[in-house]
Amino acid sequence: MLSKICKKAFTKSLWIYHCNSGACNGCDIEILNVLTPYYDVERFGMKLVASPRHADVMLISGAVTRPMLPLVKKAYAAIPEPKLVFGIGSCAIGGNCWFDTYNVTGGADKAVPVNFIVPGCPPRPEAIIYGVAVALGLANKKAAPVELKQVEFPVDMYLANKAWEERNVIYKVLND
Amino acid sequence: MWLTSKIKQVLLVLKPGVVTLKYPFEPHPVPKNFRGQPVWDHHKCIGCGGCAAHCPARTILVRDLCQDLRVMMYDGSRCTYCGRCADVCPESAITMSEQYELATNDKNDITLSMELFMLTCQRCGRCYNREKTNMIDKMGLKGFRYDNLELRAVIQKATEHFDEKMLEESDRHQRPRKIGE
Amino acid sequence: MDILYIAVNIAAFLVLAPLFEGVVRKITARVQSRQGPPVIQPYYDLLKLLGKQNLSAGNFAFTVAPMLALASILSVIAFMPLGYQANYLTRYADVITIIYLLTLGGVACLLGALSSKNTYALMGSSREMITMIMVEPVLAMTFILGAVKVKSLGIDEAVFSTAGGYGWSAVLMLAVYLMALQAFVGRQPFDIAEAEVEILEGPFIEYSGPNYALFRYYLMLKQMFYAALFVMVFIPFAKTGAYGVDVLVQLAMVFVVFIVIALIGSTNPRLRIDQAQKYYAVLIAISLVAVGLSVYGV
Question: Closest Cα of chain C to B16: distance in Å?
């Protein structure tokens, strides 16, 4: 019974540990912006703590560079269960422009399992608060994969020509 | 004195009151010329691949499925929202929308893929008048493209005529292994 | 009947200490023009910390230190005469025992910090030691002032000595206690030792989960105890005789003291340890003057 109360209290007081794994500091400044009076995130009960042992949520910003890779893994292991990881900015999601360079591992999910991502370069403070709200269940997810098609197959104009009938075989196979 | 200055400080703070924006519960407008997620208009796109060539994070991929079908995929996970694709598009088919509320727990949620029907010349298959078109001339890779969509890998080879062996080889493409992986 | 007084003491302190901490955080947020957490936020914090995994440094001192700190502060609370009623335990302890038990709480923090083998914890604990050494004389002088006046070391007589007659020495001691209150409580001008971002939360850096919850509870109870001590020693005026009304009036005055703590805490910068020592040297000298005056009966 006490454990149920503790689980309910978990979403109302998340303590944040901010880990910069080789970022340009743009995302770090936006994270600090979120704690200022204008976009105050402390009204949801979140606090910035300095030690990973006190924290529940780890915010990773930055493409994980080669020297930082074992350190990010150590910081993740130092956080007590239950824990969440947020990747902030496109460096933490996929490594941004440097995903295949020599010094960058490319994205935080090569180092630690990531639960939520907040895209942007850098993401606006409102976008970070929106990500927090989606994680807490206060708002619905708005992003969804989009598929656009130009023309529906088969194309009538070409059906008349017998030479194109052989080609239309490919379209039928694609439609299956 | 120290005490009066602290009392003055507390009284000064009472004037603005509470300035916190009620953001997730009320929408907040964006500034002008804000670059959010890019949006493609598939009716205007001609499938030139200019956006794919100019993207600094190589996040737009182009793959030809057969002689007439070209699939272009925008993988939003590495997008820097720089707007170069919108700048270079010859048909203005890409607009940088104002959408920034993109947080999600799945990387596949921010992808956009587009299937384009590439009209073919009835005689020779696929050609266009190279003397008259400038933008396409300047592209590095001319011809049929074989980027691997699952691994999100750009393959730097293009052939003049459609090559099915290239298509199979690109399916089996493997990324080079890096140290520490 | 006396058991009821002890139970009311402990229950009032345990239940209300996180609420007062929440009030302090809310007022700090309002001074900074932002909305701030809800007032019952520290309850959520403590409950959440109880539900986390307990990562331990492995030695016995690490697990015993938070329990020792909480036990020491609860035992001091159990025999404080809240509501002007001395209870069953009050005659078993006197003024010097209270000073020892409060120091024991600080030593438990140091024990926990030093057993975690972390450099930042070492720095935090050295600063905490200096703060404790500075602060104990002022606390001792507050009690000794009352003890000298009524010529006895028992708790209820020494604490309520100002009901007999106020005098200049008590006024001087009131000013000194107010100036030293922020260091007792561990808040803004003097929070060098614990809970600061400069050395990554000081002594408690390796604690996590339930152990950390016990330490935070200890800090909240210590805060409320010092505010209640101020009300009991220096504001003995509203004595009506009915126990319930007295307790409620004293808790309301503790709330006012907490508002003062919050306002001073949110408008002041943090002092360095040597600046704090100079400030405290002056305060100790003035408190000695106050005790000297009370010896002469002023």
Answer: 7
Q: Which stretches of chain B drop beneath a pLDDT of 50?
A: 128-134, 136-138
The predicted pLDDT at position B140 comes to 63
Decide if C224 contacts C11 (C-beta within 8 A). no
The CA angle A88-A91-A93, to the nearest 5 degrees, is 65
Q: What would the two tokens of residue C57 be?
A: 């440094």
**Total structural domains in chain B?**
1
Residue B48 CB partners (closer than 8 Å, separation 6+) = B90, B135, B136, B139
Query: Is the predicted pLDDT of residue C127 greater than 80, yes or no?
Result: yes
- Domain annotation covers residue B141: yes
Nearest Cα residue in chain B from A127: B101
Q: What is the pTM of this model?
A: 0.81
| Nearest of B124, B143, B125, B135 to residue B50 by alpha carbon | B135
Q: What is the CATH number of the domain that holds B54?
A: 3.30.70.20
Q: Is B18 on the interface with C (CB under 8 A)?
A: yes
In a domain, B134, yes or no: yes
Residue C50: its chain A contacts at CB < 8 A? 2, 6
Residues of C in contact with A5 (CB under 8 A): 47
Measured torsion, CA atoms of residues B135, B138, B144, B146, in degrees rounded to the nearest 10: -110
Q: Show the domain range for B51.
A: 32-159
Q: How far apart are CA C253 and CA C232, in angstroms?
A: 10
Contact yes or no for A82 and C52 at CB 8 A: yes
Q: Is residue B58 domain-resident?
A: yes
Q: With the C-alpha atoms ordered C46, C48, C50, C54, is the resulting torsion angle positive or negative?
A: negative
**Residues in chain A, pLDDT under 50:** 157-159
Give me A64's structure tokens.
């994980």
Tokens of B28: 């907040």
B24 contacts chain C (CB < 8 A): no
Of B84, B20, B22, B93, which is closest to residue B52 (Cα–Cα)? B84
> Percentage of residues in chain C with pLDDT exceeding 90?
17
The strand pair at B111-117 and B60-64 is best described as unpaired
Q: What confidence category does residue C298 fall into, taking pLDDT thresholds of 50, 70 and 90?
A: low
Please tell me the distance from the alpha carbon of residue B55 to that of residue C176, in angstroms, as a whole number. 67
Q: How many CA atoms lie within 13 A of C64 on its CB side?
A: 8
